[in-house]
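Data availability (excerpt). The following record was deposited with the supplementary files.
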Amino acid sequence: MNGTLYVVATPIGNLADASSRALDTLKAVDLIACEDTRTTRTLLARYAIATPTAALHAHNERAASAKLLALLREGKDIALVSDAGTPTLSDPGAALVALAHRAGVRVSPVPGPSAAAAAFSAAGFSATGFLFAGFLPASGAARKKALAALDLPWPVVLYEAPHRISETIADLAQRFPAREVVVCRELTKKFEEVARLPLGEAGKWLGAPHRQQGEFVLVLEPGEEKRPEGADAERVLEVLLEALAPSEAAKLAARITGAPRNLLYRKALERAK
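Predicted structure:
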């Protein structure tokens, strides 16, 4: 029989955030696959967990995943953890999880801390959801291009490293000058800071020397929902349906108004009935 792959969320800073279920799982499995074994051993030592560890990181993910899958097929239970938070969110591990699924190995999440969820909960932006965009591209040109795609009507959660945070904030302020941003620094750690402020003021806030260190999570205020410019999409669709089949009418109406083609096609089918 195959073993089970447990995807275990671990603390993002404060080790006291480890759940009892996560700790029980780490004690019970045969092996823990870690992004960095040295980082994970700090957690294991805190709770006197002696389970063996193996490295699974961005540089060995393919080879390590194959070896771990072989162990799972032998009946071994394995826990997958990242350095902090929920695995596979801007961290390695997705390749192993995908291999396990394809091989018919049971995958079981052990939920818990997530920097993205923590930041969103402390942001105070009223929304039914958010977009997790992870890390933006490192180069300035690519980063600005990526930001253009994030002009959305819901909050956007970003991760950023300390050596790039000032540049990213400057690019955000240039692209979205009228919006607010929530800057979360060192979440759950001793020097945690959570500040909500206009993007135009965020650069000055970051200018304090002690704020040039630590891990950052940003939550960008949602933009306004954009409506198709020009002619009303449904009115255009209605006119086109007088001469075209639903699929062609929806396709042309989408090109004219910018409205989603799938949505217009559903409306066309409803009208056809």
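Summary of structural features: The chain is about 40% helix and 20% strand.
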